[in-house]
Amino acid sequence: MKLSAKVAVPVAVILLAAAGGGYYLWQHQKDGAAKGGKQGEKTAQGQVLYTCAMHPFIIKDKPGTCPICGMELIKKVEGAQANAKELEMLGHVSLSPTQQVMANVATVEAKTIPLTKEVNAVGIVQYDQSRQAKVTAWVAGRIDKLYVNTVGAYVSKGRPVAEVYSPDLVSAQQEYLLALRSRDRLKDSPIASISQGGEGLVASARQRLLLMGVKEHQIAGLEKAGQPNIRLPIYTPLSGVVIEKVAVEGQYVNTGDPLFNIADLSTVWVEVEVYENEFSFIKLGQRVEIISQSWPGKTFSGRVSFVYPFLDPKTRTVKVRVELPNPGLKLKPDMFVNASVKVPLGSAVTVPVAAVMDTGTRQVAWVEMKPGMFEPREVKVGARVGDMLQVLSGVKPGEKVAASGAYLIDSEAQLKGTGGGHAGHEGMPGMKPEEKGAAPAQGGHEGHGGAPAAPKKNGGMSMDDMKM
């Protein structure tokens, strides 16, 4: 009985110890499983880190400001895709005041102002083709006398330029005088056909003289004199300047031979060559200012009278005809002149030309969202007026754009890896947002000077802040 009690006590102690150890192990495994589940859930959600959009190699585990540029840190979620706001922030570029001074970055406010497009072109003075004429021989004969012997002489419409002797013309005058005498004898005939026949003969002879170039007052003089004129004066159809002289005194001419070329220079044409990217601004009736080096300080004014319907393939220009008065005959044919056409475009949003970068496929402007932070904005531009560009869309009045240093900002964006304004630099397909903003692989530096700017005094920076 005593031996059984001695054996039973140790056995009970061992059983109690085993039960306690089993309970302890079960509880420890339960707590470990719960703690592991929470850690796994946190790992599945991804570790929340914060980085600088300007300096992506700055990595912190809590929000704050960048120790280099002072920009507010944004979330960088590993293992997950960034949201639209974070992607938009990654596309921005921030510059510290020191970097803006070094990069010569200056901003200009986009304003709505009235624009006037000025189209400048060169032109050549030409004869007004509607004011040119030829003096020709209306009958065959001999030039007995010339009143104009030199090119450049001024001739008047009411004064003769030459006298021609023509046997045919003398014969026609005699027939007319005979018809007049016949009409006077037959007009008292009691037979109506005979009295009317005399009138018909006079009308026929008169018409023949008119076709030979005889004027009405010359026919009246012929009737008064009663005998033919041996030499017939020749008149010009208009007043102007002799630009070509063919006739020589004593020369025999046939019907239709040219004697003189006459041009009225009181009005001239200027054929202006406008480049194909500007001729769409030219309209009929527009006022054109003409300036000639021969007359410094004097401006001639004319109107667009015609736009030629074809393009010169060699010069890539379209000819525009300008008609203008020429008082004092100051403008000479074949003279080179400068033409200027001012075309009002109305009120429009304008920015400096240097503020818009043309990548070949689109135009991009860097808009300042807040001091030091710039956003690339695709814009559509219209006409260029001096140093200003008409903005059709993309920039609103009052917004500030980088007027100088835009290309340096774009270079900063390229180094950052966000693509900037130039196409083809947006990163490889499938890259994560944080991979696009990663630091350069081998010794790359942000900024333009090759090294980051000095950290701010109120924001310390240590090597632990950088994820190399």
TrEMBL record:
Indicate yes or no for the key word Zinc.
yes
Could you provide one GO biological process annotation from this protein's UniProt record? copper ion export
What range(s) does the Heavy metal binding domain occupy? 50-76
Q: Which domain of life is it from?
A: Bacteria
Among SUPFAM superfamilies, the record links this protein to: HlyD-like secretion proteins
Per the record, its GO cellular-component terms are: membrane; outer membrane-bounded periplasmic space
Which Pfam families would you find in this protein's record?
3HB_CusB (PF25869), Beta-barrel_RND_2 (PF25954), BSH_CusB (PF25919), CzcB_C (PF25975), HMBD (PF19335)
- Positions of the region Disordered? 416-468
Q: In this protein, which residues make up the domain named CusB-like beta-barrel?
A: 267-341
Gene3D superfamilies found in the cross-reference section: 2.40.30.170, 2.40.420.20, 6.10.140.730
Q: Report what the protein is called.
A: RND transporter
Q: Which organism is it from?
A: Geobacter pickeringii
